[in-house]
């Protein structure tokens, strides 16, 4: 009993830290594992056994394959079809959500959304009006699509591996398909019929506007011959003025130099196009003797040239920018990149841009050399929105990755190779065929997810070993009393759904699957329906933005607030709750 209380306290503490979000989920999971090991709840020889688990290897391989498919342009080819659907909003909604769900069945949700969000933003200018009306349904569609195959989401891979450990045989790739397709169709139809009223119309970019009005931030400063900074470099100017500002262009007679280098020496008669607030402008004028020159608003032509671009990008859930500021990262000094504006929940964040701590879902407006911007986006885990050519991997190779991917699916589905072996071999083949360069192999594995799984799998074992999973299952069965098994399944589904909305869905699957197995054992029925319920519950966190990376990715571009998600997410969750248990019992009978 003591062990049950201890593991319960550790998991409860971890859950609180997950919700608090002060530390990233992989660090929390690892700390919880180490505490459990120190208390003897996890045997010494099993503390790091999770990292050798087949499910963790499979997840890593699937992430590599997903990136290779994304990089090769496979999803781009499908997304390009969206331009042919016309300008009717309902047709665009149907097409965007359907193609997103389809791609997410085979490619990571994040990779799919990275391609589809810019498509939706482009189409919003021709028919959708406010992109916010479709971005949330697209994110939810990606989650629905993830339920269709075993590789659609890490939680499905986890559940399949837990079945292998408990009954000796894993779920197959398409064992999830019957229930997953049914729920996907139900969910998509529900969103098509109701999203017009349930999805909030936010201040996101609409058919004509961006959340930034850059002209209101830009001013011309004329350099007289008597100015003290004539002959000094922009770097020296930036070092003197500690507040945030950016020299985005310099005019010399009829010549305009966009995004001038830091070593440029200021000349008399130069006109500096400066982006700064009024207080900072006054500091510059007082310190340098420059004179205010602009009498009218400046156009965006001073921001862009053949070599220099301005690109919008969304901060990813696991971006290296999260919790840090432009000043911390020294983006201007290290990369020559200007942060021109930041939008959060569709609203521009105006003051003191250099010291804004970036959050997942923030939309940044960056100016710099096109190739350097590409590297910055890749390096820091951001996804370009307005400039499709920014996607890394412009050279499209469609046939080879599709052939490799199809071969892996067929070999594993027909039983010639196990899923971990088939997909690890496919990931290797993607590298050997140069679909994904070797240097990007490890860069595009979502290591926080891998660490999370490696740490939580032993914790799930401790939950089972201590008897806590059995006790929790008994409580759930006591609540359902003598009711049909469908009631027990419904309780398990609701609890898993609630958990997946506040912690990572893979962690929810690891923790809830042992409880489901014990519930099935207590009822003397097949474990498969209970494992399927856990898989579905873990895969569909619609109510909060923190439940899944797809939800976070659309938060900034869609201009959504935290509380906007439940308006569509809660009704959708209720509809799917009603449909899930009957569907699972239909395809996975209790006596099977």
UniProtKB/TrEMBL annotation:
What keywords are annotated for this sequence in UniProt? Membrane, Repeat, Transmembrane, Transmembrane helix, Transport
Please name the InterPro entries in this protein's record: Cit_transptr-like_dom (IPR004680), DASS-Related_Transporters (IPR051679), RCK_C (IPR006037), RCK_C_sf (IPR036721)
Query: What would be an example GO MF term here?
Result: monoatomic cation transmembrane transporter activity
RCK C-terminal domain ranges (all copies): 205-290, 297-383
The record's Pfam families line, in alphabetical order, gives: CitMHS (PF03600), TrkA_C (PF02080)
Question: GO CC terms on record?
Answer: plasma membrane
From the Swiss-Prot or TrEMBL record, state where the protein is found. Membrane
Coiled coil, from the record: none
Q: Per UniProt, what is the membrane topology?
A: Multi-pass membrane protein
Q: Which residues cross the membrane?
A: 5-21, 27-44, 51-70, 90-123, 135-159, 171-193, 398-425, 445-463, 475-499, 530-548, 568-588
Mention one GO biological process in which this protein takes part, according to its record: potassium ion transport
Q: Which PANTHER family match?
A: BASIC AMINO ACID ANTIPORTER YFCC-RELATED
The name under which this protein is listed is SLC13 family permease
């Amino acid at each position: 009993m003591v062990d049950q209380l201890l593991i319960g306290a550790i998991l409860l503490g971890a859950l609180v830290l997950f919700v608090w979000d002060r530390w990233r989920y992989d660090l929390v999971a690892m700390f919880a594992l180490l505490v459990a090991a120190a208390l003897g709840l996890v045997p010494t020889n099993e503390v790091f056994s999770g990292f050798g688990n087949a499910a963790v290897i499979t997840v890593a391989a699937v992430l590599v394959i997903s990136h290779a498919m994304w990089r090769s342009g496979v999803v781009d080819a499908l997304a390009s079809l969206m331009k042919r659907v016309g300008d009717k909003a309902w047709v665009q909604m149907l097409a965007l959500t359907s193609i997103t769900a389809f791609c997410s069945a085979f490619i990571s949700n994040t990779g799919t959304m990275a391609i589809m969000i810019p498509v939706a933003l482009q189409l919003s200018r021709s028919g959708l009006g406010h992109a916010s009306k479709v971005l949330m349904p697209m994110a939810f569609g990606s989650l629905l699509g993830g339920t269709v195959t075993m590789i659609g989401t890490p939680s499905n891979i986890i559940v399949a591996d837990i079945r292998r450990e408990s009954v000796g045989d894993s779920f197959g790739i398409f064992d999830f398909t019957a229930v997953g397709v049914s729920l996907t169709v139900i969910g998509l139809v529900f969103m098509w019929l109701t999203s017009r009223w349930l999805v909030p119309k936010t201040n996101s970019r609409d058919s004509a506007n961006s959340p930034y009005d850059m002209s209101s931030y830009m001013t011309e400063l004329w350099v007289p011959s008597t100015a003290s900074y004539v002959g000094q470099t922009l770097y020296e100017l930036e070092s003197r003025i500690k507040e945030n500002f950016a020299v985005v262009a310099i005019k010399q007679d009829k010549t305009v130099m966009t995004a001038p280098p830091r070593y440029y020496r200021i000349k008399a008669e130069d006109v500096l196009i400066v982006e700064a607030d009024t207080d900072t402008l006054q500091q510059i004028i007082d310190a340098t003797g420059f004179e205010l020159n602009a009498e009218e608003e400046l156009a965006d032509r001073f921001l862009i040239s053949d070599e220099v671009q301005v690109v919008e990008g969304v901060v990813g859930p696991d971006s290296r920018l999260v919790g840090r500021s432009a000043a911390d990262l020294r983006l201007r000094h290290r990369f020559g990149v200007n942060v021109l504006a930041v939008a959060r929940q569709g609203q521009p964040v105006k003051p003191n841009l250099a010291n804004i701590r970036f959050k997942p879902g923030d939309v940044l407006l960056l100016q710099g050399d096109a190739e350097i911007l590409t590297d910055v986006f890749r390096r820091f885990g951001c996804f370009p929105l307005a400039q499709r050519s920014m996607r890394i991997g412009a050279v499209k190779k469609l046939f080879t990755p599709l052939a490799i991917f199809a071969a892996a699916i067929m070999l594993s589905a027909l039983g010639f190779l196990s899923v971990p072996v088939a997909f690890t071999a496919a990931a290797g083949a993607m590298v050997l065929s140069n679909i994904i360069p070797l240097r990007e192999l490890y860069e595009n594995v979502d290591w926080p997810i891998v660490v999370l799984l490696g740490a939580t799998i032993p914790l799930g074992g401790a939950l089972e070993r201590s008897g806590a999973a059995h006790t929790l299952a008994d409580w759930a069965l006591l609540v359902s009393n003598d009711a049909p098994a469908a009631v027990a399944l419904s309780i398990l589904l609701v609890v898993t759904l609630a958990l997946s909305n506040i912690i990572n869905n893979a962690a929810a699957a690891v923790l809830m699957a042992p409880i489901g197995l014990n519930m099935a054992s207590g009822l003397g029925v097949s474990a498969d329906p209970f494992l399927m319920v856990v898989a579905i519950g873990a895969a569909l966190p619609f109510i909060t933005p923190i439940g899944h990376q797809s939800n976070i990715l659309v938060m900034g571009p869609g201009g959504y607030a935290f509380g906007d998600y439940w308006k569509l997410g809660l009704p959708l969750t209720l509809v799917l709750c009603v449909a899930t248990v009957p569907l699972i019992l239909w395809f996975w009978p209790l006596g099977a």
